[in-house]
Amino acid sequence: MTASIDSETLKQYLADDPPSIVNLAIKPHFEALSDKEKFYAHHLSVACFTGSRIVLRQVSPESEPIYDFIVALHEHIAGDYAKAAKDAGISQDDVDAYLNYAAQFLGNMGNYKSFGDSKFVPRIEPSKLKALAQLSSATQRLYEQFENAIYAGNDIAKLHLGYPSAGHVSTYYPESPDITKEDISGVSDFLEGKRLLPENTRIRQTKEGFEVLIASATKHPWAAERDLEESEWTLPDGKKVKLVFGDHNKEMNFIASHIGEAKLYAANDTQVKMTEEYAKSFLTGSLEAYKESQRQWIKDKGPAVESDIGFVETYRDPHGIRGEWEGFVAMVNKERTEAFSKLVEAAPKLIPLLPWKAEFEKDTFLSPDFTSLEVLTFAGSGIPAGINIPNYDDIRQNIGFKNVSLGNVLSAKAPNEKVPFIKDKDVDVYQKYRDPAFEVQVGLHELLGHGCGKLLQETAPGEYNFDIKNPPISPISGKPITTYYKPGQTWGSVFGPLAASYEECRAECVAMALGCDFSILQLFGFGDGKEDINGEPGDVLYSAYLQMARAGIAALEFWDPKSRKWGQAHSQARFTILRTFLNAGVEFCELEWKDDDLSDLTIRLERDRILDLGRSAVEEYLQKLHIYKSTADYDAGKKMYEELSNVEPFYENKVRPAVLQNKQPRKVFVQANTVIENDKVVLKEYEPSAAGMIQSYVEREWL
Ligand SMILES: [Zn+2]
């Protein structure tokens, strides 16, 4: 027995009290679909959600019975939790603590946080939960399967997902407590050598060696249907490796059949081919078929109903190669897409407004792929704000990928959500315009920000994509540039680990600079293109600057004082932009507070100085970011960026604690269902509450 966990440590593992429960609003976008599109969306949604049970199995052994318990209890008491409390002889507070846990559990599809991979445990006392369980024999039976696993226990390592050999939990290696990291590497590397892809697999240790469980509806696919004809090998050390098909077979079968139904409502041949390959993959376990579905998916450009489904992201496998089930169905936001395409059309006029000459810019602007979607269904352990898939490098390089932002995820807000760091006088304008401001920001960031700029290169020995005899003049030094990319060098290879955050920062600054242009605000429907800092377009611009400053403060949550490192590329970028605002001087921006602990910290940002002081500070920073990138000047870029990212004692010891204190629980989303009524597909929405969340799952009765 290990020593029990002290109560202070335990606190960080308690469920959110209460969690922030919000609706994933979709109605107008769903209603705008044709009947046929609605059927396509419906069958794909069913397929996505069916995999939620796979997600549960991928989190922890107890997640599946806990899920079944939450649903069974709700059905037994017909959603009347007040009555349940009375019948079980517990208080309303007890039952609320249970409901808070249930909502967070469903929002993470398991009892470990999808963001952070640590366990969360109910605040309801064990004896009270037991009393609830005793309300029916079904709940009692389920309760017995998890009663020893739902709470924190005595072993802190078990409160985190990770390699079993390090004492952590991972059901990617089910019933294999003794499997070592070396075992996992050995089998994984062996199969990689055989060119078997790992995303839809799990590994189980047996007496003879290892079973590689492959998700498929069929337990015995024909050799010709499989990615490998052989299915059993003996490793040099004598251990056996055996492929075992049919993992999650019930779910995979149901998923494949609904994919087949969706195919009947496909909008084009590409969707037909895509759904065929999906079905083939889910029936037989072939990931080569899955890769073909992804090639088709990329070709399906700008569909009314967008969807991707399968074993996608590998964050949660401690070994980092096995995928979690994920599926989404979404609608293209037509208005936003139109504003974005106007922005792309206007790019040749807008890019020259940026603080560098044409020599540092591409000859012709190529807009990156970017769409804004509204999510109907997202099955998985959590909902991201954007997606960039597929992850297969060969497909990304040869065919491409899709880059989407999920509009209704980004804009979802809990009722009465606090807005820390914004002054009372600004709250009304900020709350009214932060979403439109963010939309402008995202469009400029993605399309023009990541889209603009040229890397000055020696493309082959002695060949240059700029005039080497008469090199461009750096606007920073006023002298001809002396650095550039050598043959074989790329942006990523020169800037290394700095590249991701630095590029996000460059894109954010492009958006902050161009957002000051009133003709751009007009493209998004604000004003007539004339300068109007005190009118509505000015409200949008002011909100954009406040939002960036606030994000720069909130970013400190993602800076780790132990390693003194930034854990998140965008957060680091936003912190440096906040510092840039502050460096522009107190005439423009300042942090203000009265209380010693900074609990009343607010941002003062002068609206009528955005166009002169704010914009020029951003442009000066952006110019350096851009020119250093363009000219492969890693040393200068690193020095500047690390200086601005440095978290000084004031930010570490004063601001960061205030940020953590104001931190809101992570949102969990209540999603709608689609049902077929009188030959039509109808949307069913639920209340943004724990009971509403549970009800939405109860009605996914196939799950
Ligand atoms: Zn970006």
TrEMBL record:
EC number of this enzyme = 3.4.14.4
A single Gene Ontology biological process assigned to it is: proteolysis
Cite the binding residues for Zn(2+).
H445, H450, E504
What is the catalytic activity of this protein? Release of an N-terminal dipeptide from a peptide comprising four or more residues, with broad specificity. Also acts on dipeptidyl 2-naphthylamides
Q: What is a single molecular function from GO for this protein?
A: metalloexopeptidase activity
**What does this protein's record comment on cofactor binding?**
Binds 1 zinc ion per subunit.
Cofactor(s) recorded for this entry are: Zn(2+)
Its predominant location is cytoplasm
The family annotation for this protein states: Belongs to the peptidase M49 family.
State the name under which the record lists this protein.
Answer: Dipeptidyl peptidase 3
User: What organism does this protein naturally occur in?
Assistant: Karstenula rhodostoma CBS 690.94
Q: What is the lineage of its organism?
A: Eukaryota, Fungi, Dikarya, Ascomycota, Pezizomycotina
